[in-house]
Specification:
It is a single chain. Helix 2 packs parallel to helix 3 and helix 6 crosses helix 7. This protein has seven helices and six strands, in the order βααβαβαααβαββ. It has 236 residues and is α/β, with parallel strands linked by helices. The protein is globular and about 45 Å long. The longest helix is centred in the middle third of the chain and has 23 residues. Strands 3-2-4-1-5-6 form a six-stranded mixed β-sheet, with helices on both faces.
Length: 236
């Protein structure tokens, strides 16, 4: 089962350098709308069976063109919504970097709990549970090689990738998830395999559904495939 972790396109909050969080009405900017439309060419040829998205507007707008092209109705899942940044929501990044909590978020995110909001450890728990649950459900409905899209937010994607990589949440700030980027994880009975991280280039290859070399058991030497805040970089 393979999930394409899609971050929403560039938003008006990204360009304003504010922490959007769960603020109402944060839409894509002109570049973000171009990125959303470009997803039809980047992903439209893949055998995508489902689209699951965060309930926030910027994710809704991001998947609209792709969903229309594929004839799919996106499923909304609150568990992959943006981090609840509490009283940090809507504030300028330039102000937030002066807060003592900012250093904790950067150096020990597993211990970070936002004032009047949630902790990043809780974010990872809910988002990983959601991705794995949808993966099992879709595999039952469509077969083990199902390919699907989860459109969500930067810190959520980084949390899921940290889990898939088997690294501690405190390392998740080493992972990038740019606007409109795609990160690819294949879940198997053995372990998750991370196929791509922060892919922002042209169309992804349909070979994404093939088992990774390290999963094969034919005795051949596995080949290593060429690979190409977020509060930890570009907010929201």
């Amino acid at each position: 089962m393979t999930v394409l972790l899609l971050r929403h396109g560039r938003s008006t909050s990204n360009t304003a350098h504010t922490l959007a969080g769960r603020s109402d009405g944060v839409d894509l900017d002109d570049r973000g709308r171009e990125q959303a439309q470009a997803l039809v060419e980047r992903l439209g040829e893949l055998p995508i069976r489902a689209i699951v998205r965060s309930p926030l507007l910027r994710c809704e707008r991001t998947v609209e063109p792709l969903a229309a092209a594929l004839g799919l109705e996106p499923v909304v899942d609150e568990r992959i919504v943006e981090v609840d940044y509490g009283s940090w929501t809507g504030r300028a990044i330039g102000e937030l970097v002066k807060e003592p909590l900012w250093a904790v978020v950067q150096q020990q995110p597993s211990a970070a709990v936002f004032p009047d909001g949630e902790g990043l450890a809780a974010v990872q728990a809910r988002s990983v549970a959601a991705i794995r649950e949808h993966d099992r459900r879709l595999a039952t409905e469509h077969g083990a090689d199902v390919l699907w899209v989860a459109c969500t937010h930067g810190d959520v994607i980084k949390s899921v990738l940290a889990d898939a990589l088997g690294t501690h949440l405190d390392s998740f700030q080493r992972i990038n998830a740019d606007p409109a980027s795609v990160s690819v994880v294949r879940y198997t009975a053995i372990r998750p395999f991370v196929i791509h991280v922060n892919h922002t280039g042209p169309a992804l290859n349909s070979a994404l559904t093939a088992p990774p070399a390290s999963e094969k058991t034919d005795g051949d030497k596995p080949e290593v495939p060429a690979g190409d805040a977020v509060v930890g970089g570009s907010a929201g």
